[in-house]
Design goal:
Tetracycline Repressor, domain 2; 2 domains; mainly alpha; Arc Repressor Mutant, subunit A
Length: 197
């Protein structure tokens, strides 16, 4: 095994250990706890990521890569029928949210007091807004959006509708099943954004 491959493997192992630890303990876990869970020294964690902020940023990027969210969303964007395209996009996003929910909710909670968490969350959300703009530009070009929507405002509305917080409120606080929440989100988004067939 090459040295570079070994470094990449160690880095991935640290991130996976950090993810599992945060799912149980919350995002305020220390570098020392992450190092212990990874079976390495604190200094090794810093050697790989530079800072706690670097670790958190790498952690959320690793989740996106491991769960292939970009590839899955862009596959949904290729659906020919606009309604099917939107419903498949919602379904894909919800599958992702269910996977990241424990860590995502903790990052959201910490944003007001932890700049590292705020930076990591904003980085991922900014990219999601850009991805959704690809979808809404295509819908706009096809004449599939209601006339009052621009590509930008439609993408922003879709991004807000995709909030992890909303999913938590519907399935947690309101006690909706995953299927009910998904159906309502799909129906509401399609009715709000799409022009009549």
């Amino acid at each position: 095994m090459s040295n570079n491959h070994r470094l990449q493997r160690t880095r991935a192992d640290i991130l996976d250990a950090a993810w599992n630890l945060i799912c149980v303990e919350g995002a305020e876990v220390s570098i020392a706890q992450i190092a212990a869970a990874s079976g390495i020294s604190r200094q090794s964690v810093y050697d790989h990521f530079g800072s706690r902020g670097g670790l958190i940023m790498a952690l959320v990027h690793r989740a996106d890569e491991r769960l292939e969210i970009r590839e899955r969303l862009f596959a949904a964007f290729k659906e020919a029928d606009p309604r099917r395209r939107l419903t498949k996009t919602v379904e894909t996003w919800i599958e992702f949210v269910k996977e990241i929910y424990p860590v995502a909710t903790d990052l959201i909670r910490l944003r007001a007091t932890d700049q590292d968490a705020a930076n990591a969350w904003e980085d991922r959300m900014a990219e999601l807004r850009q991805w959704l703009l690809v979808l809404t530009k295509r819908l706009k070009a096809e004449g599939a959006l209601q006339a009052h929507w621009s590509s930008k405002t439609a993408a922003e509305f879709l991004w807000a509708s995709f909030s992890v917080q909303m999913w938590g409120l519907l399935t947690g606080d309101c006690g909706w099943s995953d299927k009910q929440a998904q159906r309502v989100m799909q129906r509401t988004i399609c009715q709000t954004l799409l022009a009549a067939a």
